[in-house]
Amino acid sequence: MKKGLSIVINIVLFAIIVLLAWQVVKSIQAPIKFNTEQKAREAQVIKRLIDIRNAEVLYKNANSKYTDNFDTLIMFCQNDSIPVVEMISKQNMEDSTYYTVYDTIGFIKVMDSIRGRRTDFNINDLKVVPFSQPKQNFELEAGTKESSGIKVPIFEARTPYEVYLAQPGAAFSEKEWKQRVDNLRAEKESIHRYPGLKVGSMEEASTEGNWEKL
Known about the structure:
alpha+beta, two-stranded antiparallel ribbon
């Protein structure tokens, strides 16, 4: 075999080896990169769902029911206040036993209670799913569930994978990204789990998020 041809063949073989090695590395890194991007986005979605839960619980405490209307919920947060209650232990002078009383020492705006010390909190974003493009709202339901003959208020706020994982991560083509999101949905549906993130439930009296359940 001529020396020149041998060199060409070696170069081609080396290029093929490099290409195959790159494909192997890419196939290993792709799930890791997707999982990292998914978790980063879900952290922001979960934070928003927790805000919704906190607002709904305060709304229920004030109105004896949850609401399925974000405008109503946001208006409540902007305009209403909740009592600040101090728990005081007192002694019964007759038998020296102690008992607890609750004393209202002031009021705080609902929005301030939910916002806490965060500086990036915007109440008008409460209904918007982070990373949704174009912007989409969380799905919100509310109603009652009968338990032991008693109607118990329930609510559920949710968003599927397709909303906050709609835009591909930087390391993926649209086709590759969509396939991974489809696989994620299929995996959850195969075990009868909601394919996305949600808090509360329309099936039971619960305010848990599905990320909090085992």
